TrEMBL record:
It is found in: Membrane. Keywords: Membrane, Transmembrane, Transmembrane helix. The lineage of its organism: Bacteria, Bacillati, Bacillota, Bacilli, Bacillales. It comes from Litchfieldia luteola. It comes from the Bacteria. Pfam families: ICMT (PF04140). The chain crosses the membrane at residues 39-56, 68-86, 120-153. Signal peptide: none annotated. It is a multi-pass membrane protein. This is Isoprenylcysteine carboxyl methyltransferase.
Length: 188
């Protein structure tokens, strides 16, 4: 089961990179620009080393599937459903980079009706549940911490870039959501 899930995840990530590159080209041809490129390499590194760590820890320990798999597997499957929902809701706006299209209308459908960055939530859930599913506790702890660290830079950079879009502030200031947010600061 480990190898099947591992190969599924690698194929999923490679497919997403192709989609992201295509979307980046489409957006840049429409006048979009990238922000936050200085931290992108750290996000990529966390994800690459996550898979390496997961593979190595599993094969060094081979403890098998967790006794908590009836909880962890549905969490993982649920995350995949929300991932597809988030990506299809964003359509050509979805990317692994922060690509900003001036004067674009902010997507506020799908999971974006309820949470500002559902894909980051999903990735965090995966980085925790996948290793736990196979009792790879070191990978779960280390990469959950590393993911939090890179997202503590990534999310503010993305929020700052999105604040330049008038529709972002208008769309999300008064929207009630499941995740509490601070009110937007007044522009300087």
């Amino acid at each position: 089961m480990f190898l099947l899930l591992f190969l599924f995840l690698i194929l999923q990530r490679v497919t997403e990179l192709f989609i992201a590159k295509r979307n980046e080209t489409v957006m840049k041809n429409r006048g979009a620009y990238e922000v936050g490129s200085e931290h992108y390499k750290y996000i990529v590194a966390v994800h690459v080393f996550f898979f390496i760590s997961l593979f190595v820890e599993y094969h060094l320990g081979i403890k098998g599937i967790s006794p908590f798999w009836p909880i962890l597997l549905p969490l993982f499957i649920g995350a995949q459903i929300i991932r597809i929902w988030a990506l299809t809701s964003l359509g050509e706006y979805w990317n692994t980079k922060i690509i900003i299209l001036p004067n674009a209308t902010i997507v506020s459908k799908g999971p974006y009706k309820y949470i500002r960055h559902p894909n980051y939530f999903i990735v965090g859930l995966e980085i925790l549940t996948i290793p736990l599913l196979f009792q790879c506790y070191i990978t779960a702890i280390v990469f959950t911490a590393l993911n939090i660290a890179v997202l503590s830079v990534r999310i503010p950079a993305e929020e700052k870039a999105l604040m330049d879009l008038k529709s972002y502030k208008k769309e999300f200031t008064n929207r009630k959501r499941f995740v509490p947010v601070k009110p937007f600061p007044e522009p300087e």
